[in-house]
Amino acid sequence: MNKRVKFFAEQLLIVFNVFITFLLVFESKLEVPAWLQPLGRMHPLLLHFPIVLLLLAIGLQWYTGSSARSAGNVYGVFSRNLLLSGALLSGVTVIMGLFLSREEGYLGDTLLWHKWTGVGIFFLASVIYLVSGTSWYKGIIMKAAGTLAIASLVLTGHFGASLTHGEDFILQPLSVYYEAPPVPVDQAIVFDHLIRPVFEKKCISCHNPDKLKGELILADSASIVEGGKTGKLFVPGNPGISLLMERVHLPLEEKKHMPPKGKTQLTENEIALLTAWIRGGTPFTQKVVDLPPDDSLRLLAAAVLKPVETKEEQFDFAAADEKIIAKLNTDYVTIAPLSRSSPALEVNIYNRAAYTKKQLEALTEIRKQIVALNLNKLPVTDEDLKIIAQFENLRQLDLNFTDITAGGLKELAPLRHLKRLMASGTAIQYNELKAQLPLFKSLEIVSIWNTAITPGEAEQLQKDYPSIAFIKGFTDDGSNPLKLNPPQIANSSVVFDGQLPLQLMHPVKGVQLYYTTDGSDPDSIHSRLFDSGLVITENTTIRAKAFKEGWYSSEIAEFGFFRNRYVPDSVRLLYPLNSVHQAEDAHTFFNTKLGVIGANNPAWANYFAGVRHNDLALVSEFKQPVTLYSVGLHYMVEEATGIYPPAWVEVWGGENEHRLKLLVKMKPPLPARGDTPSLKLVEGSFTPQTLSYLKIIARPYADGEHKKLLLVDEMFLN
Amino acid sequence: MHKEIIEHGLTWNRRRFLSAMSLGVGSIALGSLLMPDLFSQAAGEEAALPPGIPHFAPKAKRVIYLFQNGAPSQQELFDYKPKLREMMGEEIPPSVRGTQRLTGMTANQSSFPLVGSFVDFKQYGQSGAWVSDLMPYTAKIVDDLCFVRSMYTEAINHDPALTFLQTGSQQGNRPSMGSWLSYGLGNENKNLPSFTVLLSRGVGNGQGVYSKLWSNGFLDSVHQGVQFSKGENPVLYIRDPEGMSRKDRREMLDNLAALNEMSYAAFGDPEITAKVQQYEMAYRMQTAIPEVMDLSKEPDDIVKLYGPDCLVPGTYAANCLLARKLSENGVRFVQLYHQGWDQHGNLPFEIAKQAMDVDQASAALVTDLKQRGLLDETLVIWGGEFGRTSYTQGRLTADNYGRDHHPRCFTIWMAGGGIKPGMVYGETDELGYNIVKNPVHVHDFQATVLHQLGLNHEKLIFKHLGRRYRLTDVSGRVVKDIIS
């Protein structure tokens, strides 16, 4: 280094020492003018240079040792020059830092430490520079001084970083993995577990006792209430005019928007939490569970906090021997651990027919480990409950729809851990239950629906035992009557040969069915009540409707019954059926299976045979001649999709297949545009005729060039 | 070989060892950068866990999946989009529609006019969930439900989409979700199959369901779904023929088992053991099934809860009631399919009927499980295989329209089984066409279902044909936000 430059630098170092001492002495009176503030703010920029230079210089001194002093040693000269530059730059940095610290927002212990260690480095570096030329600055002294300087650098750097980035900046990513488990809803306090975490995550790095930007501290409740430079943070009950929310909702570009642009922003949920908290009057010590159940803060809390029931119960008893468990697991008894590592066992017994008391007795081998027992719908008696009473750790017992009686529950009194008792659909009674409930100290849930206990008595129980939740179940209060579904028929087919007893039925018990046979609408006054007496002998249309007290009556159901006295011994088609409407080929027409409307139903595809481009023509043969007087054809009409009645139907008959005569020709009516789909019967009578061969020809209807589809499911010969 | 080992020992020197070491340490560090979980797993956890016990304490023990086959329109049921009514008849903006494929049914349409729902929506419950007037009973229980409005899938047609949702693959040679659960958790009640299937059909346009949907795939055949049908023989072929006593049946099975045992000793095929187990279960089912199927003992209030159709076998309501009974009897997975939700046209008329079929009984099932204390441990799922488009298919008239397939978003709901009640998760844009918040892929949904049953979807694996298979293939993440 040029001698003059060096001389000047050394003088400057002395000036800095004096100036910094001066600044430190008069610090409290210091007022940094605005034009100097940018200089102060360059402190974080500059500070890296002295750190590196000083470290390098000390390292070099260390390496070269005492030889550094001998004149002309390149290393020695170089390290001293480095030291001088480092000391000077650290001086500048200290001055800048002192300026910066006078700005608002810096206070507290961390700053104090940072300041004094920083200043210490500067003085130390100056001293080291001063003495590094002397003969005694070597060995242990040199190393001690160096170590001290390095330690100061590390400490200063650490405190400085804590100021800019916040405490625990470095370890924060790791701490995410070890985040404290969220508090369960039932223990949470509104401020501590809902609001404070938001401030801690997003605000506190700038608003803490060490770095109170805007003179605001968000670290404790007292300071939060106090507010900052601009005023109070919130008007309890009114988030709309609260400063806190104003800052949050300002556009991101706005200087006063919080958190400032570039910092992690609040999430929607967090904003909702803060809003709800202010609207609720900013409660600090209130518990979450004390809020009304429909409070928005409480609803939001559910998303943040751990739900109550996820607490997995820890059991202090030892696990049962696996061999015993395997032995007790049978076809009807299932024993399973709650999870892979749990000693607690859950037992289900199935199959009413196979149930015996012995199954319960066998379980006494694992009586300590059973925590849940499901006996739903089994014929369990009061006597059996004595065995269950030995299962001392039982928490859940399901006795729904078992044969226990009113007095039986007292047998279970030894079960002091019992939390959930299901006794719906049993013979339990109000008075007995009321007397027995005090025996169970831990009970939380009792199921009592479908028992003799009336809604009024259930209310009383709930009042007497507020700590127990009584499951009263769904009961129909009659305010919303339902509509009955339509009646059904139990007859296996609606096609009969001689006579058929009508079998109307309805799935709901206690329903009355009224019906008509004349095509009129049935009602419960004029129509006949179905009493299983009607025998059908002719083609009949039954229209039926279901009625029951407390229900709306059903839609009308319509059932056509058709007589077919003769089934031909063989049938063959003269022309092919449509390839997609084959059904059961020629047998379709005499299989007593009627189709239904609706292409989605299999009975549509399976039971209707169809033609479009040729006649539907078939010849039936009777081995023994029969005497007929009428022939009927059952078909579908769906005007919208072009499924039409036949244009005409001819019936030919005779003793000789090749010499048949026309018996009757029918022309069914055509549907009108927009008619709803329906099933129709066209029937033609003639003078009774004895015959062995019967030929039926049905021609598909044609609208000019456009041929319509003909679908026939059954024919009736009488 | 010996020579190579000696050579290897000789050529390894200090320098090579150290450079390899540094490379090793470096690659471990790099590895942990690329795979954040590399070190988070305790040693020994890697090994596949034996089936039969949950991996961790489960929230749910059983699933009832109310599958709405054909893809119900979310715009008419649960995803309220008033903007669609405002923009009725206007062309869907290209920026919204994007460039993804459409089905062959609408791809050639010259115009894609938006259509708003014909039915009104209201908010219900504390959760304030929007539900349409077509679902009055479901509306009453919204505080027990978690709606996921941001489901999406990869398939665009019914069969692949259905197969994807059920088996995790569109092709259909994999085990169904119910089979995976049966494999992972085993049987709760040894008198009934752990996976059962119930079918019903609405009046709307229907789509087929095939038995491949409840196939066990490459898993042991004891895990396949058993279909229960309506009528006298709910489970086919388990009734003894006339003249055969139960004692004869027992003897016959014992002798057959002895023969099968010999053949197993000779060939070692696990399917032989599976067969014997199935015979034995069928024998026990002969007494268990009539007990389960008997609806005559259901109290009147239960009939009113589900609606009178619950006593008519083969209806959706009857299947819901049956699902409760099966689930209550320890059946792990009850799969319902209700057909008829494919409203390409005539939507207002058909969907109203479809909704009426399922609304009361679906809500009743949740209520019924709750009053039996079973909802905590039973996961109920309601939903279809994909959604429907916000634009109309075919002609848009004043009172009629249709909607095409839309895999990019659809709504399902879940209840019980440790899923957060009273929650609406995910969001679609204001035209209901794309997801804007919290998308849930089919594999995410499957991972979540398995998680609720105490199974880690990444560890429930089965090795077949040289590779490991999972229900969630190679993706899926548990949707933690909807778990309580």
Describe the structure concisely for a colleague.
The complex is a heterodimer of chains A (718) and B (484). Chain A is α+β, with helices and mostly antiparallel strands and 718 residues long.
What attributes does this structure have?
heterodimer; A: 718 residues; alpha+beta; Leucine-rich repeat, LRR (right-handed beta-alpha superhelix); 5 domains; 7-stranded mixed sheet; 7-stranded antiparallel sheet; 31% helix; 20% strand; B: 484 residues; alpha/beta; 2 domains; 9-stranded mixed sheet; two-stranded antiparallel ribbon; 17 strands; 35% helix; globular
Q: What proportion of the residues of chain A is helical, as a percent range?
A: 25-40%
Quaternary class? heterodimer
Helix percent band of chain B: 25-40%
- How would you sum up the global shape of chain A? elongated
Structural class of chain A: alpha+beta
Please report which band the strand proportion of chain B falls in: under 5%, 5-15%, 15-25%, 25-35%, 35-45% or over 45%: 15-25%
Q: How many strand elements of chain A?
A: 27
Write up this protein:
The complex is a heterodimer of chains A (718) and B (484). By secondary structure, chain A is an alpha+beta fold. Chain A is 31% helix and 20% strand. In chain A, a hairpin with a 7-residue loop joins strand 3 and strand 4 (345-349). Chain B has two domains: 2-34; 62-482, no CATH class. Chain B contains 14 helices and 17 strands. Chain B has helices spanning 2-11, 14-34, 74-77, 82-86, 94-97, 136-140, 158-167, 177-185, 246-267, 270-293, 300-306, 316-328, 347-371, 442-452; strands at residues 62-68, 121-124, 129-132, 145-152, 195-201, 226-228, 333-339, 378-383, 387-392, 403-406, 410-415, 423-425, 427-428, 435-437, 440-441, 462-464, 467-469. In chain B, strands 1, 4, 5, 6, 7, 8, 11, 12 and 15 form a nine-stranded mixed beta sheet that branches. In chain B, helix 12 (316-328) runs parallel beside helix 13 (347-371). Chain B is globular and about 70 Å long. The chains are: A alpha+beta (718), B alpha/beta (484). Chains A and B meet through helix 13 and strand 3 of A and helix 10, helix 11 and helix 13 of B.
